[in-house]
Protein 1
Amino acid sequence: MSWEVAIERAVSHSVPNTYEVLASYPHIRQLAREVRKAKEEVIRNLDYYIEEFRKSAERIGGRFYLAERGEDAVEITAKIVGRGKVVVLGKNNVAIETGLRKRLEKEGNEVWETDLGEFLIQIADDEPSHIVAPALHMTKEAAAEVLRRRLGMAVPPDPVAIAQRVREFLRDKLLKADVGITGANALAADTGAVILVENEGNIRMVTALPPVHVVYDGVEKIVPTLIHALYVANVQAAYAGLYPPTYINVTGGPSSTSDIEKHRVSPAQGPKEYHVVLVDNGRRAAAKDPALWEALLCIRCGRCHLHCPVYWALGRGFGKPPYTGPMGVMWTAVTRGIEAAGPHALKCVHAGNCKEVCPVGIDIPQVIHEVRKRYLKNFSKPTR
Amino acid sequence: MEPSLDWVFSLRDIMVSSLQSRRLPLPLDREVCDGWRTGLPLGDGPRALYTSCMYQMAPAIQKAVESLEKLGAARGGLRARLAALGAKAAGGLMLRPDREELERAYRILRNIYNMLRQSGVEFRLLVDEPYSGALLYELGFEEEFAEYAKEVYRYFKERGVKEVITVDPHTHYVLEEVYPKYVEGFDLEVVSYLDLLDAGKIRVKISGFAIHDSCLYARFLGRYERVRQLLAAGTPLENPYITGRETAGCCGGPAESIVPNLAAKIAFSRAQKLATLSRTVVSACPICLANLSRTGIVEVKDVAEVVEL
């Protein structure tokens, strides 16, 4: 089955759903404007908010790490995890950006993606094609085929049956996991809490079942307060066309109880350790860049992909996984530089749909145009 | 479908040298640009109709792209280098648009001219009008564009032009949104002919067509509704997921000079979707007209071919 079939199906499901959600819950657009304001504030003062978040995370009993480069983040996390452990992951684009899973596997850990789409990508040894739906390029037929070929699972090409079979497979891994690693939809500077939006229930288990929870994401996910973080969760889910989301998870430190004499102690049922590894990898430089800063506003709803004629034509050939599609070209520039993003910027047709549908109003065509300009300037040859 | 830098820079060289020698981005005879106004009075005054040679050149671009595809410009590596050499050699030649296509472009421009006159708009015509430089900007050659744009601005100022009537979205966008950022003191008024037509008097000659919006008109220049206002009498067929302002696709045109097979793929998929509404498609942009017509899936007409006063 071809990419054309897969994207056609995804667009026909998701695009009308998203319009319906936005029409049914009109306050979401107002929240989206608030999110933009909050994120602008953080991007303008990124170092200040990183420090605020650190203090808050430590105050609630967490351990905080700031990694300048992707490889630093990977090494820090490899140390936290150790060797010979069972590690379960929530969908995490920064883990893919920095190559975390492979590094943990190298240490002899058994590492499992628990998001269905990401799990399919893992077992197919493939690359993700969409920021929210990594296996977007796989039709149901292709997904069933991957399960049969790689894991010997006989499952019909039916999304319900596929989800059921993978749930059975992963439940055992989740129960015996030593470490759970998630990303973050938003990080609250005032409280040190992380907000995670999901529908599958896997993140809820990844954050609560193993004794250690590691949050692993980019510094731009910080927002000023926990309330803003909840706004981000609502807006992200709505613009992904999945509203209300089945779960919004708040994690504010290791598990705790104050049931004895109202004195809060830790741990209780959930993890005893809460680590937050924040990755810079080009983000702090982008925050100061007159054009690229806008990319940091992105809340990863993945809506721009589904309105982009170049993404319809090329899929993950437009951008560098995990950052594909219009937002992906910007994010390839942020995390891998102009040289890596430039060839993709040259494919942009400036259709402008991405800008129109972006919840936080990023002028994506303009950012991509800027990447294109710089790329051509950097590699310019004198006029003959 | 990866762009080749060798080719992109060769294209820049072709454009810059062509703009220097004849103020057109492609090696075309200047006569191609001016033929449409034969026999029309030039007139005078501060307001000028500015074609930027877009409709006249579009058929030649199509032809140039076809030869590029044959030379393998889209495939990168050695082939791209050969294509670049080929194109450089072709730079010494003159591209010739197909006679029939050129006549059609002239008819479109004459219709625009007549409709403006009938709407009571006063304006003059320009002799040897330069191309706007839009393609240089769109490709990302900022410095080359900035230099050329100053020359174009000077052309207008020397002729006392204060207001420019555009006939296509690329010229309109670059003059209205981009020139002020690159040309110091830029003070030309930019108005689209679509806004000057008397909508109350418009007749639409066909019906049951689908509208393909220009990306620039619909999403960058706020003309989505205006195009519909002008075409309303023809009861265009709409589908919110095919012809919606945020959901409609591009014709692929802007990619055609860099990644022609990507442009063709986008055009093909766009035409297929439009064809589910109607086999007749109306557009308001010479690039859309050329690129969607190439697919052979739909018959594309320009808005100026289907409306009259």
Protein 2
Amino acid sequence: MDQAQSHHQTVEVGHAPSTTTGIDHRKMLIWAFLASECMFFGSFIATYLVYEGQSLVGPYPAEVFSIPVTSVSTFVLLMSSFMMVLAYSAVSKGDIQGFRAWILCTALLGATFLGFQVYEFTEFSQQGLTPRTNLFGSSFFTLTGFHGAHVTVGVIWLLSLFGYSYINPSALSRDEGLNVDLVALYWHFVDVVWIVIFTVVYLIGVVEN
Amino acid sequence: MKIKRPPFQVLMPIVAALAIASWAFGLGEIFLYLHHTELGEWGAVMIGMILIFAIPGAAALVLNKVRGNNKE
């Protein structure tokens, strides 16, 4: 009992969140969510790999993929992660103007990535590849479509934080940086998933064909 | 009759979704237009590379200007 009280006092003095884990519930939640997302995307990537090369009719990956275009869209997403780091760094220093500038950059680059996806999907459909064409089309559009939906949610979150910084700037102060920390974790996760998709689906897909 | 404004939590995500849709579909249309010119897929590559450097560059310039104005 004494030990428990002593531990509680230590936690209070250290300004750690007063939870049983010592970690803020929201941070614990985002890690649990990201763990479930790993399984979500893992199963889609595994499905894609299982069906790879099993399509009976074309178009096949090497016929539709454009590595230069997808490389640039990957670079756009990587750059947006860098902007996210700058936004988090700004909020850690209590620099709200810097935060606004860099979070808007992150959102714009995220939306640019979605522009590339709109272009790519339209081009593929014009070349005859739709989710109903073959196994490759079904697994490819499901995987990249869900990733695009995650990027869209991320950009909505980023823009909402940008707007929130004007309504309640104190919620994004140095001490309340967790709001930015959570979106940063999500954004980096989405970025890492894309790196895996780009390597497994695009690069290996073109090389193998 | 007074019209009640929707709360920020509802309004902001809707505005954000509309902004994303207009930016992404607008950019997608530009890429498609360039694809059917002599540039082909390299049009999208060029615009993409320009945006990668233009967006952070513009943000840095605006930030410097705002900070300069605040110091004055």
